[in-house]
């Protein structure tokens, strides 16, 4: 603590991102990065954009990228907002739509950044307990609230709600903004984008970090009614007019234009996920059905903290959350088939040793 | 206004960045961009960094860039923080160090983003009137306050305080954080960086946008006591863990390593600035002595709004602020010699027409 910190700074408990280790090379299955490289067209676009025009500010309105996204997802340009990754968009949206006083609702087990946003912006929140199978209990969101945030698929569980369930939540909440965080949606979940035309209180957040293999480029986008987009823009323009640099803008446009490439890499990630889930179940793991690019797993006879450390010692990095209800689980990102084979060999040996 | 906007969103008056026109090609002297391209080594570094590693998150701690900055400015790595342009850093710093209640002090004529940050974070502020020659009256900052922000050189005036004056402000304000915004410092002002070791309440903000010709890459940095840096980091990690993408990190390191190149382009900008100032004075302009890459000018017989429009009609874009005390001034960024010659021809013809 420093005497110079504001009350806010003293109170916040910052989000801790997954480790980016530098001590040695790991099979890195801890931050849900895509194992496949971005489209070659992205790399080409970046090479073209890396020129002397960098002396100029980027377009603060991200017009070209917004038009590209609008075309890809089938909405108007005015319904699209671009940000420096979906985390920044979520921060802006919390500030743009939520007020101190009435609690924001989100599941008790979900992306651990949500309570952090609440703390930094002085918002109250009420965690809604997931049921025993980690399903989101839709009807528990039919109560007065100051806003709702749902990750769909949820993290770190990977479970997802069908669009009809998201619609139900929206139908019971015309008074508040419902943010649906679709960071992992491309890996098999139903997007709520088609509901945007119907519900003026729905804001959807997506990212190019996962399905587009561009975690290193920092591009996310939001889709919603024009008035919500304008609200997020007002907040952005009160903090930083230009959050996306010229390279990120160029790379993101190219990524969105190469749909065929990403459909194929996504298909591969899904196939590897299903194969890995089956192999884990075969050696006694309970694997939560996942529509994301990770699996959330637990074993009746092996302690997650020990498995985490043993895997780490053997050069395999996964993620463990030391949080109530999920402290005996591991979140395992889906890597290449080769990486997952190495992980499976390793973890199988570990649990079989435990079992004997 | 939307019923879904938060109280904050309803209240804020977002900052309006300088126009990035798309209707035609202008001699663009309105956003203080550097007329010279970034170092060729930056472009090379960007080409090298645009590869498949983009599927990975960037380093959230910006270790390599922080080390490079630390080496360049002569501080420890722990005294450096990197952000997505100096605007983002300022936003984080306002939230990290200032509390609602006690007013923040900054000059009445200064970077117009400062009051915007105050509004979005519910901070009170008190503008300190500059004297008639637009000098910052140091002793007016020797009063109780919740924090101080000084742009040095100031914007949009270009005037600057010597380091001794900054020291005086610091000596009278051990109780609060003093932010010195040195966005334009490289163009001839004295940096306060040497004071950082002495004053634990000094935070300096700089950017690569201006002197390093990288407005399009979005990189700024802050220098201060380790506890202040930790405060900014806490705020950043409560909003967005990764605000600098892999390309921005790589390009920024390369820019800082090519000092010789930038010393030369800065030298040229300064030479052009002085030549332009002399030419403007010769046709009757009052030109505020500037240590930045722009000039702030007024003419006794020509209205600034009219000059602005007439220049625009002739393809020259400058900036006009419709604000008290400065509404008869124009801010003119320093372009290449050729651009400034065209500007001078144009504006000379305009004021001579007015004069006759």
In short:
By secondary structure, chain A is an alpha/beta fold. Chain A has helices spanning 7-11, 40-49, 63-73, 85-97, 114-120, 163-171, 226-236, 246-257, 259-282, 304-313, 337-355; strands at residues 27-28, 80-83, 104-107, 125-128, 148-151, 178-181, 202-207, 220-224, 286-287, 294-298, 316-317, 330-333.
Task: Count every beta strand of chain A, where a strand is a DSSP E run of 2 or more residues.
Answer: 12
Shape of chain A: globular
User: How is the quaternary structure best described?
Assistant: homodimer
Overall mean confidence score, pLDDT of chain A: 96
What integer value in Å does the Rg of chain A equal? 21 Å
Number of domains of chain A: 2
Poorly predicted runs of chain A: none
| CATH class category label of the largest domain in chain A | Alpha Beta
Q: What would you give as the CATH superfamily of the largest domain in chain A?
A: Type I PLP-dependent aspartate aminotransferase-like (Major domain)
CATH architecture of the largest domain in chain A: 3-Layer(aba) Sandwich
* Residues in β-strands, percent of chain A: 5-15%
Secondary structure: helix percent of chain A: 25-40%
Question: Could you state the order of secondary-structure elements of chain A as H and E?
Answer: HEHHEHEHEEHEEEHHHEEHEEH
Number of helices of chain A: 11
Distance between the termini of chain A: 49 Å
The major sheet of chain A is characterized as: 5 strands, mixed
Neighbour order of strands in the largest sheet of chain A = 2-8-7-6-5
Question: Largest interface, with Cβ-Cβ < 8 Å?
Answer: A-B, 83 and 83 residues
Alpha-beta content class of chain A:
alpha/beta
CATH fold-type name of the largest domain in chain A: Aspartate Aminotransferase, domain 2
């Amino acid at each position: 603590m420093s005497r110079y910190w504001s009350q806010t700074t003293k109170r916040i408990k910052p989000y801790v991102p997954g480790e980016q280790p530098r001590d040695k090379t790991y099979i890195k299955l801890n931050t849900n990065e895509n194992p496949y490289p971005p489209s070659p067209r992205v790399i080409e676009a970046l090479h073209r954009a890396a020129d002397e025009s960098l002396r100029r500010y980027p377009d603060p309105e991200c017009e070209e990228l917004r038009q590209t996204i609008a075309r890809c997802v089938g909405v108007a340009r005015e319904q699209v907002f671009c940000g420096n990754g979906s985390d920044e968009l979520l921060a802006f949206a919390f500030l743009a739509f939520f007020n101190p006083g009435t609690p924001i609702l989100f599941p008790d087990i979900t992306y651990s950044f949500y309570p952090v946003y609440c703390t930094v912006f002085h918002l109250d929140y009420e965690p809604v307990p997931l049921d025993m199978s980690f399903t989101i209990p839709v009807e528990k969101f039919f109560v007065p609230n100051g806003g709702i945030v749902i990750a769909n698929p949820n993290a770190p569980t990977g479970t997802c709600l069908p669009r009809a369930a998201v619609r139900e939540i929206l139908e019971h909440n015309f008074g508040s903004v419902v943010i649906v965080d679709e960071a992992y949606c491309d890996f098999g979940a139903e997007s709520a984008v088609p509901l945007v035309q119907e519900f003026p209180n729905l804001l959807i957040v997506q990212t190019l970090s996962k399905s587009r293999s561009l975690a290193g480029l920092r591009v996310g986008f939001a889709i919603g009614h024009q008035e919500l987009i304008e609200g997020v823009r007002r907040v952005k323009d009160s903090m930083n007019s230009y959050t996306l640099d010229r390279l990120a803008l160029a790379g993101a446009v190219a990524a969105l234009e190469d749909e065929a490439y990403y459909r194929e890499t996504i298909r591969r990630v899904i196939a590897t996920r299903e194969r890995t889930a089956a192999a884990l179940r075969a050696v006694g793991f309970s694997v939560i059905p996942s529509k994301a690019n990770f699996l959330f797993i637990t074993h009746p006879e092996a302690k997650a903290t020990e498995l985490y450390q043993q895997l780490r010692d053997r050069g395999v990095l996964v993620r463990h959350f030391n949080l109530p209800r999920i402290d005996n689980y591991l979140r395992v990102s889906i890597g290449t088939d080769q990486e997952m084979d190495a992980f499976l060999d390793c973890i199988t040996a570990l649990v079989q040793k435990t079992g004997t």
